[in-house]
Backbone:
């Protein structure tokens, strides 16, 4: 995701902090290390992806969609589930 701009709206940021304890405004940190990107459940015509990586000392999962203009729209940032952590650790240790 090098060079892509990550965006989210303020309402989504506040909602994600309250629900998951993570600010989607910090989502760029996940791409500073190794990530595992797989398809996520899409909504309507919107194709979503899931990136599992590490940031702030733990495994996290970012749900996002890539727009055609080089922008990544962050949908959700949360603690990675056990199965997501296992998949990440199997590939990256």
Residues:
């Amino acid at each position: 995701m090098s060079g892509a701009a990550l965006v989210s709206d303020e309402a989504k940021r506040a909602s994600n902090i309250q629900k998951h304890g993570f600010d989607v405004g910090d989502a760029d940190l996940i791409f500073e290390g190794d990530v595992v990107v797989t398809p996520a459940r899409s909504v309507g015509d919107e194709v979503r992806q899931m990136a599992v990586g590490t940031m702030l000392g733990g495994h996290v999962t970012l749900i996002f969609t890539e727009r055609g203009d080089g922008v990544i729209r962050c949908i959700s940032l949360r603690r990675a589930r056990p199965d997501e952590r296992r998949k990440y650790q199997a590939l990256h240790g």
Summary: Residues 5-92 form a domain with the Nuclear Transport Factor 2; Chain: A, fold (CATH 3.10.450.530). The chain has one domain: 5-92.
